[in-house]
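ok so i was messing around last nite and threw this chain in just to see what happens. nothing serious, just curious
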Amino acid sequence: MSESLKYKSLQGVYWMIYCVGFVYVTYFLQEKGISASMIGTVIAICCVISAFLQPWIGSLADKGGALNWKSILIGLLGLNLLICAAMLFIDEGMAVVILFASFMTLINCMMPLVNAACFYYLKKNIVIDFGSARACGSIAFAAISVAVGKLTVMFGAPSVVASGIALNVFLMLITFSMPYYGDMTEGDSARIKSGGRQGNFFSKYPAFVIMMVGLSLVMSFHNCIQIYMLMILENVGGNSDNLGTAIAIAAVMELIVLFNYARLHKKFGAKNLLLVCGIFYCIRGALYLLATSVTHIYLIQTLQAVTFAIFASASTYYSDETMAPEDKVKGQGLMAAVLTVGNVIGSLQGGFTFDALGITWMIIISLGICIAGAVLIFVANKKSTV
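result:
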């Protein structure tokens, strides 16, 4: 099997694990008697911890030697296996909350390592198409969301843990099979470390900072809806089986943009596409408020093609186009933080609002935050020089 195919498998199985952890967290913890506000708090804490751990783990991997992307990824997977095994025997109270939170945190920490593998092979002149590999991740995400949804109906919450164990083992085997050809050159390391020796970053890129804040608010809506999708479905008569289908529809719709983004980017540009993304997230929020059946939710999920799929592609390009050469690495890191910040805001706001006021007000407040984000994206567009 070629490195390209192995890397596509790596992306595919990683996003399967991500689906199990982050899509089914609400279902799993609710089954253990945990409130929506507590679930939101747990997810927010996981994201904050991950935001600190991700750059630290990345810096360890950059140094090479015994601690490289491959060895660290295998270590995290091994630790995650132990956590999943513990959840088979400990399934009550705060202990299971802490274990599942650790499971989610480690999944987040794997993300920069999975992405780093692509650029490692590119440095070794091995052709890897990141776009098609990420598309494989979306396909796998869709497939596992449906499968786990059906398993939860048949076997309940233990099927979430069992899926986590099986996928961790599978990803570990794939990682073991991927060759490691040695460390990056000293010149490469020097170039990586050269970023950041400049003046005040935020005054240097005011439009980029406004765009970051706007996208963080829009992503808070995205994450709130994804985390509490089960409650939205239950409000119109759905269940965990419908959750899997709804998530799968969204994941499949992402493929349309992932495979065609280059053409869209050439025609419209990243900043304009991000504005389109923000506008359609607002439309999506309004439609959730109007939905009265599971079918309506399924139809709304097709808007993933003009919302998250555009964000995932255009945000990366926008950062690359905006940053000076010495700031490109830092810019990508800050843009990645948009999702983390959005996750914290969305999970906390969604959880507490749902418990206090119900699902309708949760969506209304999330939509208000999203509209504010879209306005900031518009302002950033006007200030942007790219």
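not much to say yet. The two ends are 41 Å apart (CA to CA).
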